[in-house]
Design goal:
Elements (H helix, E strand, L loop, with lengths): L4 E2 L15 E5 L6 E6 L3 H17 L6 H17 L1 H12 L3 H19 L9 E2 L6 E9 L2 E5 L5 H15 L2 E5 L6 H13 L6 E3 L4 H8 L6 E5 L2 H14 L3 E4 L5 E4 L5 H13 L11 E5 H16 L19 H16 L3 E4 L18 E4 L6 H4 L6 E7 L2 H8 L7 E5 L3 H10 L4 E4 L18 E2 L12 E9 L13
Parallel strand pairs: 1-3, 6-7, 6-9, 7-8, 9-10, 11-12, 11-16, 12-15, 14-15, 16-17
Antiparallel strand pairs: 2-3, 4-5, 5-19, 10-18, 13-14
Helix pairs in contact: 1-7, 2-4, 2-5, 2-6, 3-4, 3-6, 4-5, 9-10
Amino acid sequence: MSPLTYPMVIGNHRPPVNPDRALEVRSPLSGDLLGLVSDATPAEVHDAVSAAQHGFDETWRYATGSQRAQLMHRLADLIDMHADELGGLETADNGKLLRETTMQARFAARNYRFFAGIADKLTGRTIPMDNLSTFDYTLREPVGVAALITAWNSPMQLLANKLAPALAAGNCVVVKPSELAPRSTIRLAELIEEAGFPPGVFNVITGGHQAGAALTADARLGLISFTGSVATGQAIAATAAKNLVPVTLELGGKSPNIIFDDANLDRAVIGAVAGIFAASGQTCIAGSRLLVQSNVYDEVVEHVTERARTIRVGDPALDTTQMGPAANMAQHKRILSMIEVGLSSGAKLACGGGAVRDPELPDGLFIEPTVFVDVDPASRIAQEEIFGPVLSIIRFDTEADAISIANGTEFGLAAGIWTESLSRAHRVARELLAGMVWVNTYRSSAAQAPFGGVKKSGYGRERGLEAIDPYLRTKNVMVDLSDSVRDPFSIQT
């Protein structure tokens, strides 16, 4: 039986997958072949940008905000209707729990509704001038064609963070999902067509490095928005700089989750577990460094370790499963290699420490929930992003110590604070170098709340009102209302 193929979307054309240039999508649970996608050629990438540019020039730039909003609401309704299907595709592709991927699909729909509400409210300003005979105003216009590049861990949600503001602002897009988990994005293209979006508004290319490099090097782009690794983000930013194309980057993290001695420890322990073991730790906001104040350190270590040992690892489609597999073979090897780094660094292994050995899970890429204690803040496992279910617990004494350790990496994406002191919560939140700070919670999201990083975690913001700004350009219009004839050799103010 021939494997299923998932063609790209280029305008109103879906070129068949060339078996000679096909990439396999495989299950991290079983290793089974799930389907084939195209490895796009530079010519096909060029065609996709051309289709987006044509769609923008011919139709989409002339759609009113209310028309865009109406289509976005239709799309959100369709996503809600197909959330189980979309979640199932993602779970099969990347091993994430089905109940989470389904919820992420519904959260994606919420994002489209949020930005649909903004689409007809993108107003400019009238600006009072020193010269009363001059009338000045601004227009906020779409950038044109945006390249949206997403990662394999949360394709639908990551895409919604980018696509919703892009559409609301009036842009056409070329999307490149990860070649490891592309199927939900290709299915979304069908829902976008069903919702009534014109051809060329939403284009999908698939492929590996060559396809991504061809896309980001296209000088016709008005914006590149990327989620992924630091190294790839740096390469994209360097390429985009040559063409002076703006870039927003949501990159890695090594987020501190800080438990002070006055915290509600029952809640804090659950927050620590959620921060690192949810989604098998394969999330940029993973609270992979747990900073614990000395006089509650032993108690927290005991309870976190005890909870980690009881996590049910298995089939992500089952309601009883709490942690699924690593998403792909390369990531599985990376996680195991970093565990070995931790073992050789002198950190104490409290639980886990290797691949799952279970006869009921013979083929999956499973990693044991792993906890290291007494970790040196300067060690590799405390400094480098692992992107897996590996927790480093670090002791601190004072509030100043906690802030210093928390800020002591090259990343600055997210952070958590656990304390019953209102003043401490606000004081520490102000000092942390992070784009997102949670207090007495962790790994919570809202369409209205802006998200992004500092330092090597990237720049720009997704979600919230701030997210639409990169997808718009400001144009100034100045009108001379007087009847006077100016001096042509002197600037007029």
